[in-house]
Amino acid sequence: MSEAIKNPFTPVEMWNDTQVIVNKDDEKKHVDAKHYKIRYLVGESEDKRFVDGGNEEVASLSEKTLYLTPSIHRLTGNPFHYDQGRLESVSGKDRISEQTKELHRHAACDDHKTIEVIFESPGVECCAMSKEEADKKQVPLQFIAGYLLGKTDGLLKVALSKTVVDDDHEYYENIHIIPESAIKQLSCLE
Fold first, then answer.
1. Secondary structure element (H or E) that encloses residue 13, with its range
2. In the chain, domain spans
3. Residue 3 — pLDDT band, cuts 50, 70, 90?
4. How far is CA 53 from the centre of its chain?
C-alpha cells in the first residue's frame, strides 16, 4: 500500500427496522431486526412541490433525496464510475436524518469494524471502448466500504451489509473476499 488515493465520494451508513425469520428450537419465528448497509453518496436533490391546501392557499412541500451506490471504480487516468443499475435512493428529511449517518475516514486503524478498501479489481466492468483501447487499459481500482469480517490466509473479508437480530446476532451479506496483495489502501470509517 503506497501513495494515498483520494476517493471524493462520502461513505454513508444507512439502516432500517425489519423483521426476519429465524429457526429456534426447530420452530420458525419472526423477530425484530435492524438492517445496516454502507453506500457511497453520489448525488442529492431537493424537490419542491406546491399543494393546494383547500383554503385558496398553496402550500409548498420540500423533499430531499440522496442517491447512493455500493461501490465506485476508476480506471487509471479516467473519471470515477459507478454502476447506474445499482443506484439506491433515500428520500425525506426525517428519514435521512434518522436513518443515515455520514462516515469519516481515518488513515490509521487497528481492529476497526467499519472500513473502506481500495483494491485492484479485474472483475469490474467498464464502459464501451474499442479493442485497441481495451488492450491499453490497466486493472481498475474498486472502492468499497463495509464491515470487516476478518483477515486470514492473505485474504480480507468485507461485507457491504449486515442484519442485527434483537438478541445481538449479526448476519452479513454482500461479502467480498479480497486478496491482500490486491489492496492499495485501507481506511477506518467512523
1. strand 10-24
2. 10-49+60-189
3. low
4. 39
